[in-house]
Task: inverse folding
């Protein structure tokens, strides 16, 4: 081991002892000034105690000369014990800290259109499946928020109430398909049911993401009335009109399979009004990539607030130094009473 290695080891030990550790009573380090005094006294006393004796030959005393140097070992051990006791009196402490994060989550309800037109193939494999996949990723990226799920067609239904159990809501997402509700597009009813799920929430922010590919043609509640209801409960609504303006489908005719162009009937005005009344925003999604970008923008707009509190725990480490000091004193005394007893 070279000189640099020793310096590195010493530096690491110094940092661990005096930098990384904290001390409850650091004033005790002034006691280190006693050690030079003790060493000086020991040297002076040792010199005064020496007696010159003349011998014709020193050949028989070579071993005694070695013991002469070794006899200082008990004194060195006593000084090391004093150092250990001083450190123990300073009470070194291992300071550990951790953070407790308090989350201010957002309550969100996804209101999804499941009318038969959501089977349109302009999204792969269709509008509904593409919407489910992208919404699932959106949920997974927001672990601190509660989510609820409402589906609507000619009527509306709560598929999942607000929950922090994201695995549960994702499993329920898989069960969503067209045909499980009476066909039609009851945007107002879907929005009103979503408001019902959120109105009693005490979350700081309440949000509905409403996705549809049609216009309101069913239900007993108008989109305007539902939007005003959402505004009353301070619920923000982001609306998404999904689907290409014109898309092609295969239609079976007497002459075989033929391509047919179909025009989407998205009520842009109604969706935009809902967003404006509630302080949200209306988005148009004509591709899966666009829909993904929309969810990413909503994710940025509706950030969950996090507040971290830092705690500290201090553990006293004086006992090992105390035991080391006692052990060094015992070793010093034992050597003084045995091996080095006759030297002096």
Result:
């Amino acid at each position: 081991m070279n000189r640099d290695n020793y310096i590195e080891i010493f530096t690491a030990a110094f940092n661990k002892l005096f930098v990384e550790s904290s001390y409850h009573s650091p004033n005790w380090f002034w006691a280190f000034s006693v050690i030079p005094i003790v060493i000086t006294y020991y040297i002076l006393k040792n010199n005064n105690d020496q007696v010159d004796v003349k011998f014709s030959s020193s050949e028989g005393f070579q071993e005694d000369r070695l013991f002469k140097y070794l006899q200082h070992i008990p004194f060195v051990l006593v000084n090391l014990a004093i150092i250990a006791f001083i450190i123990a009196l300073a009470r070194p402490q291992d300071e550990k800290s951790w953070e407790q994060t308090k989350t201010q989550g957002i309550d969100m309800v996804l209101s999804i259109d499941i009318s038969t037109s959501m089977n349109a193939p302009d999204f792969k494999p269709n509008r509904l499946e593409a919407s489910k996949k992208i919404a699932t990723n959106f949920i997974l990226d927001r672990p601190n928020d509660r989510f609820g799920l409402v589906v609507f067609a000619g009527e509306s239904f709560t598929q999942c109430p607000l929950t922090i159990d994201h695995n549960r809501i994702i499993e329920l997402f898989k069960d969503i398909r067209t045909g499980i509700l009476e066909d039609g597009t009851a945007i107002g009813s879907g929005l009103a049911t979503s408001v019902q799920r959120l109105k009693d929430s005490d979350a700081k922010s309440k949000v509905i993401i409403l996705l549809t590919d049609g216009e309101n043609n069913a239900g007993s509640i108008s989109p305007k009335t539902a939007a005003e209801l959402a505004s009353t409960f301070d619920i923000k609504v982001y609306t998404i009109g999904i689907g290409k303006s014109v898309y092609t489908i295969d239609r079976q005719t007497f002459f075989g399979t033929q391509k047919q162009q179909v025009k989407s009937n998205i009520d842009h005005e109604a969706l935009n009004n809902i967003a404006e009344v509630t302080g949200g925003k209306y988005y148009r999604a004509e591709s899966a990539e666009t829909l993904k970008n929309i969810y990413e923008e909503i994710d940025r707009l509706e950030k969950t607030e996090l507040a971290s509190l830092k705690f500290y725990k201090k553990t006293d480490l004086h006992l090992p130094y105390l035991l080391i000091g006692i052990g060094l004193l015992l070793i010093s005394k034992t050597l003084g009473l045995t091996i080095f007893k006759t030297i002096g």
